[in-house]
């Protein structure tokens, strides 16, 4: 008997990632969709062969639902993910885990209490280029990591959203909360923690709403750009930039500078990983089709989550991992607002 999955929230992330990836997974037998807009849920149920319910409670109270994907907007994660765990469901929650440390804490506590699996969708850990880069860093063939720089930017959520409109929840303070820092920044903080096997401890940042406007033509309530300096527990220092205004070309690159060379991840469109040593030797890896907003490929997250439940394995991104990333994102915004260096 296959697993029954309930999906809460039927925006782009469900349409392009969760829906097709659950549908393609051989261990999933049934999908149930809920969205505040019933038409959206109906459209995805038709597209991916599932059923529709009128409330999230119907999913949470259905004893036959094994897994829940929480694809609601940021401010609702602490409600739906907490309730789903306490209702005995395994939960895959979209990032960021929550908008506040208190909200994230509720979810983590619910996981401990229920002993169900909780995984957060920090999907960059699953890409072949990042996995290979981690392997090389761990091997210390390039020596120890000294510095790094990372960026994640595209033309903005209104180009990715379901209705392609600047009337998007991503631009609303009460729903998005953290702007581009929560949307794209949280991915990059998590991947730095993962690649470096380290934690960011001190931050300083600048942010702004430089270009985006809402449906009324007003400047948006959250940042569309954030640029920062980061220092880790192990003493590495580096920079990061997150942007919703990289018009023309997406950039999802990370450079890791080591004692004997550099790793360039997602810098070259043809080679997802390049290793250039101090002596000038170059090794280039062609590992995957790079996923962008315009070109969606299987993230591997859904398959990993299903396997974690099915085989009773620890999740690859825990609630605690996501809580650490959220702490850094909140520190970045505090630094930008107070113009001070903040200790995470």
From TrEMBL:
It comes from the Bacteria. Pfam families: GFO_IDH_MocA, GFO_IDH_MocA_C3. One of its GO terms (molecular function) is nucleotide binding. Residues 130-263 form the GFO/IDH/MocA-like oxidoreductase domain. Transmembrane segments: none annotated. Residues 3-122 form the Gfo/Idh/MocA-like oxidoreductase N-terminal domain. This is Dehydrogenase.
């Amino acid at each position: 008997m296959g697993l029954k999955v309930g999906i809460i929230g039927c925006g782009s992330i469900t349409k392009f990632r969760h829906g097709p990836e659950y549908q393609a997974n051989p261990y999933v037998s049934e999908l149930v969709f809920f969205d505040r807009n019933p038409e959206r849920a109906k459209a995805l149920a038709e597209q991916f062969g599932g059923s529709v319910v009128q409330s999230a409670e119907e999913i949470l109270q259905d004893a036959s639902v094994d897994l829940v994907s929480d694809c609601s907007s940021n401010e609702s994660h602490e409600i739906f993910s907490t309730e789903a765990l306490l209702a005995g469901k395994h939960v895959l929650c979209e990032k960021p885990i929550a908008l506040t440390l208190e909200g994230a804490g509720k979810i983590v506590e619910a996981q401990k209490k229920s002993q169900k699996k909780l995984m957060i969708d920090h999907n960059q850990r699953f890409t072949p280029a990042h996995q290979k880069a981690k392997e090389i860093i761990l091997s210390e063939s390039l020596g120890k990591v000294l510095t790094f720089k990372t960026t994640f930017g595209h033309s903005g959520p209104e180009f990715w959203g379901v209705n392609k409109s600047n009337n998007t929840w991503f631009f609303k303070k009460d729903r998005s909360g953290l702007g581009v820092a929560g949307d794209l920044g949280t991915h990059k903080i998590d991947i730095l923690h993962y690649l470096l096997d380290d934690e960011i401890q001190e931050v300083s940042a600048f942010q702004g709403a430089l270009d985006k406007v809402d449906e009324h033509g007003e400047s948006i309530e959250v940042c569309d750009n954030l640029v920062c300096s980061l220092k880790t527990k192990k003493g590495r220092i580096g920079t990061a930039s997150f942007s919703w205004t990289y018009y023309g070309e997406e950039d999802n690159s990370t450079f890791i500078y080591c004692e004997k060379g550099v790793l360039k991840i997602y810098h070259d469109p043809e080679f997802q990983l390049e290793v250039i040593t101090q002596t000038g030797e170059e090794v280039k890896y062609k590992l995957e089709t790079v996923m962008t907003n315009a070109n969606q490929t299987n993230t591997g997250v859904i398959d990993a989550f299903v396997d974690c439940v099915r085989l009773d394995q620890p999740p690859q991104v825990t609630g605690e991992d996501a809580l650490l990333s959220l702490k850094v994102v909140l520190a970045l915004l505090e630094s930008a607002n107070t113009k001070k260096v903040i200790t995470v």
